[in-house]
Amino acid sequence: MQADLSADLITIGIDIGGSKTKIGLFKRGGQMVAKHVIPTGTKETGGVLQAIADKLHEVIERSPFGPADIGGIGLGVPGAVAKGGVVVECANIDMKEVYPPEEFKRIMPELEVPVRVCNNANAAALGEMFKGAGKGREDILLIRIGSGVGAGIIANGKIVTGFHGLSGEIGHICVNPDEKTPCGCGRYGCLEQYVAEPGMVRAVQRLLREHPEIPSPLRVFREGISESGAEVPAGLIPPRMKAKDIFNAAYNGDEIADFVVNQASDMLGNALAFAASVTAPEVILLGGDLSRAGSMMIDRVKATYQRMVYPQLTGIPIRLTALAGDAGMVGADYLIEEQIYGSDRV
Ligand SMILES: [Zn+2]
User: Fold this and answer.
1) What is the pLDDT of residue 2?
2) Could you give the domains of the chain?
3) Does pTM top 0.90 for this prediction?
4) By CB count within 10 A, which of 61, 96, 178, 335 is most buried?
């Protein structure tokens, strides 16, 4: 790390994920100077924020700068964050009814810096606005697809949290009222059930079962069958099907994969048309697994969107995100830089 770092304030952008936490150190203007990845803390290791504090102590100790050079901390969390910054609840990590600015004051009293918090889909949207595919725009709808489907909404350069911190739960709008299998949320027919990885895998497996006559390379993932197609001896686990396997198969012309990818694309395109009618963004950004699908899926999403949306909104560009795994950290840094320097001087 360069010695002149201490000339400027260092801000810290943190992206807390279900298993990994990414910590970025930034100079003013979102210039990342260091990045650290640690396992997300658990109850057993003293908590999520304690794990971050431990790492920060270590980083500061080894750096040419001290606690006085740290300007603030921005934090993206995988859950609902209410308007004032209280983390209401996170699905997969141990954070509930926590107010991180107070917590940091307690566990890192020497820092005395402002701390700002947002949901990590919102942080990703801020990151893309700051340094990525949404640069220069102030009204952005970002959809992330992975094990679930989430959205980050930016209006007039500010994130929209909603009163309870639950804005952007686009994964749980109902797209199929006839669905018989419940979603993780308890309802039936949510977008997430068809577009997120587990939903696509489930759809492929169902079709493979219903159509034994259709040959498909995806049958190697069937329970009890090895990659070579032979029966797997008891006790051995067959490989787990992933979204990328489905995209690959569809790309190579597999009938079942093609059907499932098209179905997911149509449902997503339709959902984007709904969402665009509500938020009227300047640009729609798609990130997560979808960026691995290549043009095949995004072209179909765009075509469905164009067909379904209110005619005056057809011109909204739909693009892939640009920052990949760093978006949340960069956005968390923006959140705190905005507070320190003001949004027009970051
Ligand atoms: Zn749901």
Assistant:
1) 42
2) 3-132+324-341 (3.30.420.40), 170-320 (3.30.420.40)
3) no
4) 335
